[in-house]
Structures are given as C-alpha cells and as structure tokens.
Amino acid sequence: MQILIKGARVVDPGNINGIKDILIKDGLFEAIAEPNQIEETNQIEIIDAQGLIAVPGLIDVHVHLREPGQEYKETIESGLRAAAAGGFTAVCSMPNTSPVNDNAQVTSFIISKGKKAKAARVYPAGAISIGSSGTSLAEIADMKQAGIRAVTDDGLPVASSQLMRRALEYCKTMDIPVLVHAEDKDLADGGSMNEGPRATALGIRGIPNASESVMVSRDIALAQLTGARVHFCHMSTAQSIEAIRQAKKNGIPVTCETAPHYFTLTDQDIPPYDTNYKMNPPLRSETDRLSIILGLKDGTIDMIATDHAPHNLDEKDVEFDKAAFGIIGLETALPLSLKLVQDGHLSIEQLVEKMAKAPARLMSVNNDIVPGNPADLTLINPETEFTIEPDTFISKSRNTPFAGHHVKGEATMTFVDGRPIYAKN
User: Fold this and answer.
1) What is the DSSP string of 274-315?
2) Cis peptide before 99 (omega within 30 of 0)
3) What pLDDT, on a 0 to 100 scale, did the predictor assign at position 418?
C-alpha cells in the first residue's frame, strides 16, 4: 500500500520544518519531498493535508491500561484505540495491573494483546520490585528480554533508598530508564488534595509540596551516585522543578515529565468535592502551575505525558477522601497542550519535542520522519475548535475534569507502520 500525504507542514525538530509531501510505502517512509515533486499514480492513495501539521507519532510515556485484572476500567485495546484518537502512536503502560507486571509472562501478555488491538503501539514498563511492594527487585532482566522499555513502581514510591540504589545500579547495566513515582507517603499522610487554603475551606486533608520534592531530591542524589538514567513522573511542584533544573546544570542524568492538568488547572479550580479533580499528585497552587510552565519553556521539563488513569464511576462517585486518585487524558492531552503554543509559551517545534521526540528517546525509539523509518505519524489540525465531551471518548472511562472545556486543535489522522489507525470523521 502506498499513501501520499500532500501539502502538510512537516515539523520534526532537528530534521524538517516546512511544507512537504510525504510518500509512505509498505509501512515505511519512502520519500519526503518538496510539494508536487512525487509522481502520482493510480496505485497511490492521496491525502490532502493542506493546513495540517504532520509530526512524528506522539508517544505518551505514562499510561495506565488496567489490563490484566481491571478490564472494567480499561482494556489494552480500548486504551490503545483511545491513544490513537488522541494522536498517540505509542504509549508506555504502567505495571500496576493485577497481577503486577513484574515478570516476563505478564510483559509478554501485554505485548501480545497490544499487537492484536491493531491500534497504537504499547511499550510496557515493568515493576521495580516484586508486586511493587518495595521489598525486593523484580525479574528485570527477564522482563527486558520479553520487551519492557523501562521500570517503575508507579502508583507507589520506592520507600527504601537502598532498594532504589540497587535498582538504579542494576538498570544501568542494561541501559533501562527508571521511572520514579516521587512521593513520601508519611508526608502525604492520607491527604486527598493539595495542602493549602482551598483544602482548608473544603475540610479535606491536604498533601504538602514536600511530599513530592523530598523524594525528588533523594533520587537526584541516587542518580548522581549511580550514574543511572532517572526519569521523574508527573511533576507538579515548583520545588521539584527547581531541584531538577539544578541537577541538570550539574550534569546528573535526569529527565522529567508533567501532565496537562498541572499547567492548566490549580486547586482553586476544584468545584466542591468534585472527584474528577482528584489525582496524585494533586492539583497545586498558581505558583506551582506557573513554575511548571516555566520549566516547560526553559527545557527543565522534558516531556508532556498524560498519566491516563481510568476509573469506573463507582470509584469516583463517592466522598472525596474515599474516591480513587486519577483522571483520564489520552483524548484531551493534545488540544490542552496546544494551548501552550497558542498562548506563546512554546513553539510548535518545542511541543513536538516534548510529546514525540523526547519520549521516543526515553523509550529507545527512532521516530524521525526520514526514508526507511517506520511510518508512525500524527496529522494535526491546529484550527479545529470544539468542546470536550466525555461521552464521545473511546476510553471506557469518563473521569476527566475537562468536560465542557472549549479547546482548539486536534489530531485528525494517526498512522502506525503506514497504516491509518485513526481518522477523524
């Protein structure tokens, strides 16, 4: 099969930025040329992409697919189809399934189900510790052979500094990044939202910024000690961003991500006891939100990920302190992130770097738009305006704080191996 994408603005940072025609053949990029330089034949399907932006396939490095064990929230197939609808050609799945992905058998199951879905790719992350219990290392070498791209106990912190050190040293020998859930559970102390005036007004126990930032500081020190690749998940506080900024200046091998809700919302935006605004880490203050935007602008924050965390209505339609943490994000991340470009905080090149290129490097993937590479590609219409309606989501869950938000820009087509896996109606 051959596809010719005509007249798109191709944005591949460090490689291409301009109006081009893209020829895809047998699942690979065949040619990238100036407009009207590629011969058209009857065997070529032509896609008119004038006014659209073509970027390397977006990759979300932080997604909870819930399968195996919690298929009522999300399945691998529904999650990967939702990812495709959001413009993502691949996701990194977190291991906190049931059973936990702490062995090669579960890893192989996830990869097999991902291939059968015929949607976005899945790059599983394996657990750092057996059962994510934080007591002893999981079978990391076996999982790497089976196909994991990273390790993490996401959802739970590794409380033991010694175990984290061993994990970092072990993973360094295999060149596997360690994804850190930075949380001091003792400081979090059973809180449900950000510690501050809003929590006090609502009578809800708060979670201080220090519960995140002290663990960030610990694992920066362990990254310096071991020289291992450390990636901090879902950063939300000004203190964490400043610590990572200084670590990078000192040459310590750390990267980090944030999520759209941390640069879009604050704890002041939470309607009384609305559990669709409950996530971990929680929505922080306006000072923290502005620090997140600054970290994105100056390169301290490398990536934007979703922390897509589907939950059934029964787990959210309860008292705030009893509700499950987490929101979905695969189908809202791109338009929410494009707002950074519309507001002048980032260029489109910088956004593509944070949603496609840097995630690809973390996952050890080459997603450059060059001849011979797999044709993983996202087409974006930057001008489409719409209101977010959860009932239209492909995801099985609806737990989002962005229902009713007016946004601009969306994915119109998503390709994996040259095959359209999503097309906007």
Assistant:
1) -GGG--SSPP--HHHHHHHHHHHHTTSS-EE---B----HHH
2) yes
3) 97
Q: Is 419 helix (H, G, I), strand (E, B) or coil?
A: strand
The rounded distance, in Å, linking the Cα atoms of 394 and 405 is 18
Q: Is the Cβ–Cβ distance between 83 and 91 less than 8 Å?
A: yes
pLDDT, tens only, 115-139: 999 999 999 999 999 999 999 999 9
What is the Cα–Cα distance from 203 to 200, expressed in whole angstroms? 5
Report the top-level CATH class of 2-54+372-383+408-423.
mainly beta
Task: Give yes or no for a cis peptide into 281 (omega within 30° of 0).
Answer: yes
Query: 3-class SS at 127?
Result: coil
Instruction: List the one residue out of 59, 70, 141 whose CA is nearest residue 100.
Output: 70
Catalytic residue among 307, 314, 317, 376: 307
pLDDT attached to residue 26? 97
Q: Where are the beta strands (DSSP E) in 141-238?
A: 150-151, 178-180, 193-194, 206-207, 230-232
Residue ranges of the chain whose pLDDT lies below 70: none
Question: Which tokens hold the place of 56?
Answer: 């390397």
Q: At 277, which amino acid appears?
A: Y
Which H/E stretch holds residue 164? helix 161-174
Q: Please say whether the beta carbons of 60 and 382 come within 8 A.
A: no
307 is known as an active-site residue: yes
Residue 116 burial (10 A CB sphere; 0-12, 13-18, 19+): exposed
Q: Provide the residue ranges of all domains of the chain, joining segments of one domain with +.
A: 2-54+372-383+408-423, 57-362
Beta strand residue intervals within 184-320, DSSP E: 193-194, 206-207, 230-232, 254-258, 303-304
Indicate the pairing of strand 377-387 with strand 406-416: antiparallel
pLDDT tens track for 49-70: 999 999 999 999 999 999 999 9
Superfamily of domain 57-362: Metal-dependent hydrolases (3.20.20.140)
DSSP string, 393-405: -SSS----TTTT-
The helix-helix angle for 210-226 and 238-249 (nearest 10°) equals 20
Q: Are 152 and 94 in contact (CB under 8 A)?
A: yes
How many whole angstroms separate alpha carbon 20 and alpha carbon 22? 6
Residue 94's pLDDT is 98
Cβ–Cβ under 8 Å, residues 249 and 192: no
pTM recorded for the entire structure: 0.98
Q: Across the chain, how many H-helices and E-strands are there?
A: 14, 18
